[in-house]
Fold:
Amino acid sequence: MHEWSLAEAVLKSSIKEAKKRNLKKLLEVKIVLGELQAIEEEIVKFSLDSLKKGTMAEEATFVFINEKATFKCRNCQNEWTLKEANINEESIKESIHFVPEVVHSFIRCTRCGSPDFEVVEGRGIYIDEITGEDL
Amino acid sequence: MFDPREVVSREKFAIMKCIIPVVSGKGGVGKSVVSTALSLALAERHKTGLLDLDFWGASAHILLNASDQFPEEEKGILPEEIRGVKFMSVSYYTQDKPLPIRGKEYSDAFLELMAVTRWNDIECLVIDMPPGMADPFLDLLQYVKNGSFLVITTSSRLSSNIVSKTLKILKEQNLKVLGLIENMRSVGDDSERIRDLANSFNVKHLGYIPYYHNLDIHLGNLQDFISTDFFQKIKAISMGLEI
Structure:
């Protein structure tokens, strides 16, 4: 359950950002979950609800947005989706779950076969927006 | 929009009492073997971790004979413990395949590993760095403000020239340099070149290690490795480090 550590990162960063903006308390955190990393939303939510107790995020709601993963080849400009990448082996999915960049060890551009591609969207977890109450 | 991994990565480095990035502008000077030996030597006296940040040329896992299974998970990832060294590497996740990534992807993988790895109570973290001064080196300077750098070179003119640039940046940034190790010295090498280099940057010449022709046969077997003269030399150097 390494989602716990990502949830910790989300909470700490949100609180730090809230303090920077002089917020009294956090009311909502919008979290984007990228399809590539396949993070378990339920585990992140459970972890956040446990971790937020006694912090300025105690009353916060966590809203999750799922983002589809897309890739773009730097060699031929081809774009493709995770579904089209056709990753079926469980051990590969799990490797990518821990460190999404290792996708470069396992797939190539679906058109030209180049290893030089970028994950345009849907890589992993990030915070889209926080809202809170002013001091 | 912001990245939640940055804050925790900075925090994790900031609370560590001792971080030793093993660096060199030049490749092939023995950073990985020195890093691994150093972490094994330090682990005899301190709770020690080894982080292999050479994602393109990860090799510490071979030296440590690390498992090919995923590390355990418990509210994060627990580094595998090998002979007292807590070890983390991207190699656990690449299935020994190449990892052809650019700098942006390197930085992302670096942050991911730092954000999820639970080093717990280690007292000293040794970092095996890739050569050069591109993104990995710059990421290190950005996230690790309390590092004590160990610089590796060979006796060669090429190596000393490139390493002088590494030292120049480290000194310019006011970073702590533990000293220079002169690795793979052979008979006939200029014995003063590296000492002069160290003196010119006011850093310690920590010692030289001869070129051991058959060191390779001891790699990957830890019992064999720690009985080598190479390991004993690194251990002796580690005793004198100001950490």
The radius of gyration of chain A is 17 Å.
